[in-house]
Every structure is written in C-alpha cells, then in structure tokens.
C-alpha cells in the first residue's frame, strides 16, 4: 500500500493507492486528511515560493469515485465533462451565480488521478501534498446567453504547464454545440512536502511521462495586489456558516467568490460604486481572479474589503481577512454597456 497526500482546489487528500489487481479495487475507501492552510503563501515565482502549512485536522473516508461523469481523450490528454445547471441554481435575474459556476466546473481529485497521475508500477506517488493556489477565469457575453434552464455545456480540463514544484491546469467551457469556447479558466497548484512544509519537486516519473508539458512556456498566474493605500470603497462582514463547510470542515475556494459577490451586491445597493449600482445581480461577470492565502472555518468572522478600480470602475478588487490575517484576494470584473467581448 502506498500513501499519497494531495490537494487540489483547496482540498488535501491522503489517499490509499492499492497495488492489487483492478478488479479487486472496487471502491476502496480513501483516507482523507484535511489541512489547515493558515500560513500565507508569498512571492512572485511559482517555482520560488516557500510554502508552510500546518496539519492535520480531521480524517474521514469516502469512495474514490469521480465527482462527475468524465471521459478521457488519449490524443490530447484532456478530461471532458458536462455542466448542466438545475432549475434551483438560477437567481431572480435568470442567471446562475458565478460562484456556482466555479463550483460545479471544478473537477475533483478522483477525476484527475485515474487519468493523469496514476504512478507506474513500483513508483512513488507523483507528489506528497499539493494545493490550489489561484484561479483566473474569463467569460464571454455568449456564456451568459448560453446559461438557460435545461442547458448542457461541455467543458474540458487539461494540463498547460508542469514546473519543478507547480502545475497549471486549463479548463475550457464550450457552447451547447461544443464548438465555441465561451469561458476559459487557469488554475495554479503548488507542491509541498508534508515533512518540511516547503515546496518540493514532483516525482521523477512525472517529467518522463510529460516532457512536453515540462518544456511548455510559462503560464501567467494571479499575483498579489501588494499594499493598497486607499481606504476600502465598501466593507462587508460575514460569519462563516457551518453550511459553508465542505467534507473537510473548511470553506472551499468557491465560497470566497460568493462572499465577494455578496460584498459587491450589498455595496451596489448602498451606492458604494460608481458604475455597479442597484441590483448587482443584473450585471454579468466577465472575469474572476482569486489568490488563496489562508483558510477559514465555521464560526470565523471574515472582513471583506472592496476597492473600485479608479481607472476601470467595472473592476472591483477584494481582500478577505480574518482579523489581520489575509485569507483570499479576489477580483471581479463586470460587463457594462461599454464592455468589449
């Protein structure tokens, strides 16, 4: 039995990988370790970041089956699935809130491991631990036109770049005909050691299996804002509810997007912004960026500070804090009457 600990999109997994024949591996339980990611991750280079985290918090188990039905294309090494919002996902404007889109199109560890990261026989797992560091997703106007009750939109996930200690995944959402890309998402993940809590390289067989991805050019990733001297345009306070928790008892990354959306909506109602006013749900989202710096749990009181970009007022930046600790930074850009596609 091998031990593998991995985390994608703010989730840590401690996975039992069985060496028995495939027919004997019918739903073996996964041991799941939740990690408290309290230390902020700083630095500009994905390769030079020095990561420190504390563990563990809780263990549980679940069957290692994919979160959604997926298929795999061997030729271009992409995982495909379908996004089909349910009637209860739509809000009063007839749209699906953007944080739900981010949530529902997030493929989990079980989806990816069997397609990409199953180690060769007698080889170690590809990594000890890894976590979702950031995401950047951009939508076209047609994306919002495609989201209607009963729609079914295909999406694909691929690996864009493998660095020494980091990896970038690319997700594309297509129109109902599967021809036009209507949203594109880059998610940056980082590898760390469970012993030293610092960055560590992937297993050697990863570069042997994917030499082209290791040699691929760098992909732009979300960078920290730096210090913002201006006073926040609007500040919103939220207490993390028990219902916000995932299986591992911390708030998953899409909840932070929701907190920022709620902040923008309350601010718009109170006239805090110059362009985004009134019912902010009427404005469709063009771009979302998040950079994860810490973790929040049920009962934590978070302060969501927002700033309207003075040069681009359709852009609102957010910093989520627990006391003085930075938890997540986020950016929302909205379509306006003058916005380009």
TrEMBL record:
<dbReference type="InterPro" id="IPR029069">
    <property type="entry name" value="HotDog_dom_sf"/>
</dbReference>
<protein>
    <submittedName>
        <fullName>Uncharacterized protein</fullName>
    </submittedName>
</protein>
């Amino acid at each position: 039995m091998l031990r593998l600990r991995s985390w994608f999109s703010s989730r840590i997994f401690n996975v039992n990988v069985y060496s028995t024949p495939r027919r004997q591996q019918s739903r073996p339980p996964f041991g799941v370790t939740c990690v408290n990611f309290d230390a902020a991750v700083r630095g500009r280079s994905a390769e030079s970041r020095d990561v420190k985290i504390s563990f563990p918090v809780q263990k549980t188990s679940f069957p290692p089956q994919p979160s959604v039905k997926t298929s795999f294309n061997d030729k271009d090494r992409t995982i495909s699935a379908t996004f089909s919002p349910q009637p209860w996902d739509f809000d009063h404007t007839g749209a699906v809130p953007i944080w739900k889109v981010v949530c529902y199109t997030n493929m989990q560890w079980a989806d990816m491991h069997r397609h990409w990261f199953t180690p060769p026989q007698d080889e170690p797992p590809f990594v000890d631990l890894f976590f979702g560091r950031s995401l950047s997703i951009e939508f076209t106007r047609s994306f919002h036109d495609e989201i209607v009750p009963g729609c079914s939109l295909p999406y694909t996930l691929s690996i864009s770049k493998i660095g020494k200690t980091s990896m970038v995944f690319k997700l594309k959402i297509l129109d109902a005909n599967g021809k036009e890309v209507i949203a594109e998402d880059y998610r940056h993940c980082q590898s760390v050691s469970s012993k030293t809590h610092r960055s560590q390289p992937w297993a050697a067989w990863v570069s042997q299996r994917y030499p082209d991805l290791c040699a691929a050019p760098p992909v732009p990733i979300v960078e920290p804002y730096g210090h913002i001297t201006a006073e926040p345009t609007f500040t919103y306070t939220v207490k993390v509810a028990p219902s916000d928790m995932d299986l591992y008892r911390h708030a998953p990354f899409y909840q932070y997007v929701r907190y920022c959306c709620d902040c923008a909506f309350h601010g718009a109602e109170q006239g805090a912004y110059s362009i985004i006013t009134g019912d902010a749900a009427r404005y469709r989202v063009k771009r979302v960026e998040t950079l994860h710096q810490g973790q929040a749990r049920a009962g934590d009181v978070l302060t969501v500070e927002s700033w309207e970009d003075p040069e681009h007022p359709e852009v609102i930046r957010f910093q989520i804090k627990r006391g003085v600790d930075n938890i997540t930074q986020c950016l929302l850009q909205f379509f306006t009457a003058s916005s380009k596609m």
